[in-house]
Design brief:
The structure is a homotetramer.
Chain A (H helix, E strand, L loop, with lengths): L17 H21 L6 H7 L4 H7 L3 H29 L5 H36 L1 H24 L9 H20 L7 H16 L4
Helix pairs in contact in A: 1-2, 1-4, 1-5, 2-3, 4-5, 4-6, 5-6, 5-7, 5-8, 6-7, 7-8
Chain B binds a DNA duplex through helix 1 and helix 3.
DNA sequence: GATGAATGAGCATTCATTCAT
DNA sequence: GATGAATGAATGCTCATTCAT
């Protein structure tokens, strides 16, 4: 767990003893909880410290500032997503790919479900992350770095099935798929339209399948 | 950060004299400029007033708070977009639709270009709007209301060409297309990937065409 | 109706035409209403003007500032009280005073009821006036001037019945009675104790009667 | 003027270290001084902080707002009064009550002198408290609570001498006596009449004695 | 190492009053 | 005379961050 990715001039303490590591984890946990419940801007260092039952000063000895905790949380969440996606990929590829269309559907389903389940768990926090990534260069950079890892997984997957995939630009396709899935899940989770989720998911699946796979 | 949760209906002055209308316009213009250049959170009422060469109090006699100007700006921008889209739709539909595939490509192109051109004009501000829509319920609501108008235009368009459109759920399709286009234009404009725009646009067009139109 | 008693450097307009007088009355009426409902400090010139359906500038052409309207209102209220007290006195003194004890009780009753009925009508506003008289020298002065008139009426009354009155220092007695009645009515009206009003009024009457009149 | 309606329980720091306790005391002391010298409304948090030689933020970490310090000061002053009254009561009751009329006079004197001496010490501040109790529900409540304690002391005293007291409703009598004394002391201290204090005090004593004690 | 007291720049907002039209 | 647009000083309050103990 590399210390504070982008910023941190020189000050934040890197805990080495068990007690220090636990304290840091308590802080991250409390921050995650508060950012999720109240939003990044509505949460302050005082509240995080109080919630973690440490002094304000202790917070600032582990993190140079509020954004640093947020950065650490982002890394953690994206790590979770790619770990789960990777796990599924590995499980799927062991099986013998027989019916390409079904596989493609599985891929679509996989992306959709994976992203959706993460949103279900963290949707409020992801909203904050997306917003912050739009507003803050540093957060944007971290988000991109972490998303790159998921895109690489998608590319890997397309290469595995490359003879059945309609498109040849895997890199662009992976980016499009990820972003499309992200955005759509957002629509679904936050009910920003009046449309039922079932209808929406069906159309999304169609769009991804038609894009990726030839008509059979 | 205690901002009035509901847009207070009680106070904002509706200018009656010519001078008042001009002042309000000056304020909106300055606010737009500053939100674009420095971002919503980095701009305060004081700076907007100063930039519009009016007193702080004048700002607060036209708007109850910063968010209200922002809301007004959003509405204005989205109105511009839908007006332009509508204009194009009307121009297109006059022509005799002969080749459906070409028409569909036109539709895709239209959506992409329209959205892209708006992003070109306002991309920094739109970034702020997207972020705020994620962070703030009221802004989210406004955004959704204004997007609904554009979605209605897309549905209208699909109905015009309904015998050639592959999908039947126009409502879901319109939402997906709009969001997809928005998100993609975002990727293109802000180069958040290292992929060249030409490649990306090609894939996007493919995705939309394959989704909407049968293989010819 | 003398213009703005204490302050007013030189500016407030003294209306001479019917229209001007009506406008001023509308302003005073609206101010009275607002001061009563929301309190002096919670009311501003804007609201008074709006409630009187005149422009802010118009308010300031009739009154130099907010305190001036308040002063005018005070004078008006106290004038009402002393007019009513005077009227009662005149009515009573025409009758032949036979039984002094009963007369004294009548006096007590009169003071209590008169003050109480005014409080009933204006208690919220009187609260404001009392508070302002404590906080502001100018308002204090006006209040004292107006109370002096009522005290004079009380003295006059005691002189009328002087052979039956136990005390000889009418001036001090009148002040004490007025203040006592005021304070007690305050207790009654605002229920600041849990004691029933009937019990309280009985004790007050006893206190005044025993003070003023010999045991019969 | 949007002040927290209920005393926000959420934020005010309760000092744990010696330094914190001293700082809070410094703030209360400075606030008392300024409220007395300039009045509550003429004093702001900034000035209190400056006078206590702490930062504005320090003030707000000990008190949620100006009213809260005021409340604390009120409680302190009233506590002082009732403690002194209680002390006197205890001292008096040790002596054998021989002459009831004298005792009653003592009681009157006691009430008058006690209240008067407090007024002498704090009269400017008490003026502010009275005014605020008229203008503000919360302050009114605090004042009433604290006065209840003094009333209870008066009732206790009357019960001690109950066979000599003319009235039987001790509760109502105690309230009347307290309020009467308060109001009269106010008259005396602030010379709101032109009458000499000696004359006024004599009449007040008469009124209290005649009310409480049978004619001897 | 941990604590929590202290800081003070910063911001949103109000309102009595003036003045150009 | 009346209007309402404009002013800007003033105020209450927040919070990221520092630092003495």
């Amino acid at each position: 767990m590399k210390e504070a990715t982008v910023f941190s001039p020189n000050k934040a303490r890197i805990p080495k003893q068990k007690r220090g590591i636990e304290t840091k984890e308590k802080i991250v946990k409390s921050a995650t909880k508060l950012f999720t419940e109240k939003g990044y801007h509505q949460t302050n260092a005082q509240q995080i410290a109080a919630s973690a039952k440490v002094a304000k000063g202790t917070f600032y000895s582990y993190f140079n500032n509020k954004k640093e905790v947020f950065a650490e949380i982002i890394e953690c969440i994206f790590r979770n997503i790619s770990e789960k996606v990777l796990l599924n990929f590995e499980l799927k590829t062991y099986k013998n790919p027989a019916d390409t269309y079904k596989e493609a559907k599985n891929l679509a389903q996989l992306i959709i479900n994976q992203t959706l389940s993460e949103y279900k768990l963290n949707h409020k926090l992801l909203k904050q992350i997306l917003a912050m990534a739009l507003l803050d260069k540093e957060i944007e950079k971290i988000r991109r770095q972490e998303e790159k890892k998921i895109i690489n997984l998608l590319i890997l997957y397309m290469q595995t099935y490359k003879e059945h995939i309609r498109t040849s630009d895997f890199e662009a396709a992976a980016l499009i798929l990820l972003k499309f899935a992200e955005e759509m899940m957002h629509q679904i989770k936050f009910k920003s339209s009046g449309i039922e989720n079932k209808r929406l998911i069906k159309e999304i699946e169609d769009m991804i399948c038609r894009y990726l796979l030839p008509e059979n």
